[in-house]
Amino acid sequence: MDCNLYDINTIKKILSKYGFTFSKALGQNFLIDPDVCPQMAQSLNADDKTGVLEIGPGIGVLTKELCKVAKKVVSIELDKRLLPVLDETLNGFDNLEIVNGDVMELDLKKLIEEKFEGCDNIKVCANLPYYITSPIIMMLLENELPIDEIVVMVQKEAGERLCAEVGTRQAGAVSVAVKFYASGEILFNVPRESFMPSPKVDSVVIKLTLNGEGKYQIENKKKFFSLVKCAFAQRRKTALNSISNTMGVSKQKITEIFNELGLEINIRPEKLTMQNLIDIADRL
């Protein structure tokens, strides 16, 4: 069935047919702007050997565009109520597979290995639910999956933080993690009116290009990320106090490290550069 999934009346008719109602808990807002999804799909460096993993297809509006540019698309949908809807809206595509499950609980390495046979490169593309944006992106990055690009729509504030340069005011722990694994850029803005129901915030589409093998040399990755989380845990405090309070390391020890590295004792967490954080972690 080739239906216009950007038309509000068409959407309402299909959802009504299957008795579907929006779930606030799952952050369900469906896209009705016809320009956004084609732009997202085209922003992927996709070819006839590309596999795309989609998270949360909704009613399939982005999924349709991904099927047009990729060899194979696998969409993970948590809400079972949407499965019959997707069967109807996407029944014309034979390069698509829908997997019912929670992306945070699935073994994605195994899933990618099994579902994308014959694909030379794997990418992730999704309109992510606002309430779980950072956990999903961190899971994708930390699991070191065989993916080379992530293109996602996220809340504007979250996108700005994810793509912020480490050492700038907008940076947080998630900015450091993104920088460690990838380079991030904001591709374009998506106003709140582009959705049904309309959320209270604007969105952006961002692109994360993964670094591949170790851009940064770190002796103990676990200790490094523990330090990063602790440094940004109390943003209103100085980096020294935040690290000391949350890591349980004496202020004297951290002061010695700061002096050794030539860092100001009162430096704020967001002023620490990537190299500063790496050096502090190595010395702890």
Overview in brief:
The protein has 284 residues and is an alpha/beta fold. The protein contains 12 helices and 9 strands. The termini are far apart.
Overview features:
38% helix, elongated, two-stranded antiparallel sheet
Describe the structure.
Strand 3, helix 4 (83-89) and strand 4 form a beta-alpha-beta unit. The model has no long low-confidence stretch (mean pLDDT 91). 38% of the residues lie in helices and 18% in strands. The strands form 2 sheets. A 7-stranded mixed β-sheet has the order 4-3-2-5-6-9-7. Strands 1-8 form a two-stranded antiparallel ribbon. The chain has helices at 8-17, 36-43, 61-69, 83-89, 108-115, 133-142, 156-162, 173-181, 221-231, 239-247, 251-261, 274-283, and strands at residues 30-31, 50-55, 72-77, 96-100, 121-127, 149-155, 182-190, 195-196, 203-210.
| Extended strand count | 9
Low-confidence stretches: none
Mean pLDDT: 91
Q: Which strand order do you get reading across the main beta sheet?
A: 4-3-2-5-6-9-7
Give the termini separation.
Answer: 60 Å
Largest sheet: 7 strands, mixed
From the spread of the alpha carbons, the general shape counts as elongated
Query: What is Rg?
Result: 21 Å
Strand residues, percent: 15-25%
Structural class: alpha/beta
Topology (SSEs and partners):
Elements (H helix, E strand, L loop, with lengths): L7 H10 L12 E2 L4 H8 L6 E6 L5 H9 L2 E6 L5 H7 L6 E5 L7 H8 L5 E7 L5 H10 L6 E7 H7 L10 H9 E9 L4 E2 L6 E8 L10 H11 L7 H9 L3 H11 L12 H10 L1
Helix pairs in contact: 2-3, 6-8, 9-10, 9-12, 10-11, 11-12
